[in-house]
Fold NodB homology domain-containing protein.
Amino acid sequence: MIELLSLEHEQAGYQIEIGLTRDIGYARRMLIIDEFTYEQLNALAPYFGERMRLSLYPKWDPFRNSYYSTLVIMNQTFSETLYFACSEYYVSQLLQLKEVDDPHVHEEIAVDTTLPSIPPARRLRKKNKKWIGRFGLQSIVFVCLAVVLLSLRMGGQDMDRAEGLEGPSQGAGAERIEKMVSLPFIPPIGKISAISSQQDESEPTPEPSKPTPESTEPPPKQTKQYEEIKLTGNEYTYSLPKGYVALSFDDGPSKYTKEIVDILVEHEVAATFLFVGNKVSRNVEAVKYTSEHQMSIGSHSWDHSKMTNNGVKENQNNLAKANQALEQIIQSPITVFRPPYGAINDKLAAKVTEQQMKVLLWNRDSEDWRRKTPEDVIQFVHHTDPSGAVYLFHEKKITVEALPAIIQYLQGKNMKFVIFK
């Protein structure tokens, strides 16, 4: 996962500071970016005091003949996805980061665009006047054209989703296209480098217009419907070997928990549920039901706060309260923890370890919390490589409605389901 920490135009060029979370821990990086991508990101700023997560998977938009990516703005009360155009050079930078994230590499390796000598960048700020002078008029013209085209397409009831950049899904959400910055496409600065043969096999390649090809040799036929994987070691788990897949559900227990469990049982598979502690007392039967049907239950904190903002003692109590609420119902230790928003640092990880838990993250975020229809959620799964995937879902009505089709699709791909212990 990549968190955008700062964006700056220095004498050395355009650059971003990112926080990179991998299975071996957390590190900060300074990366050079091109002027085009800088201006696109800068046009979305400022967002002070909020967390900003960059997508690892830019998408190709054949209509605009350019790449687009997303910036997710999050705080404790809301989450919003913004779209921005980016260059092929920016895409190549992300590919290099993913190559470094090889599961066989267990040390910090700097990609060739790292700038260790550059002074710390300042926080995100408003776009500068120089940019407005160069591109302001062009932006207005292109925005007007985009509005006209968008109105015509809406009139024909054939409007693509703004998140259609992730695949040819149809449905709501196209209103977010107005948040894109409509600047002219600038020729790429560099070509995308070839993907290393030792790239993390659990990650899909960012070929936006095509689904990632599956392994040439499909996994063997299932002899049972799911397996248990015990988390070990000090690394964060966020992926699986080829041929395996995991479903995980955050933010329960809720009124949908039992229904989700019933669907899983009907299809003879299982999933991992990450429950929020302060919801447990209102949904005790749902927790019992989940445990009785051999699903895996983990902690998603006591109150779903961004725990990296909390003090050490506060986090210790937060984890303990959540575990106590769950353990007194299921009568077994809680050993799996997923941090809210995926936010974790060394201090929090130490407290998680103290309470005999392991960190479970994800590598396929359905973003079902912002999608409008079950078909949107299904299309997301259809346009990602399921092999090695840890899918993140939430206990929502549209996800419940989409779940049978999702399971059938994954079973049709002969995926082996797993749960985490």
In short: The CA atoms of residues 64 and 185 lie 8 Å apart.
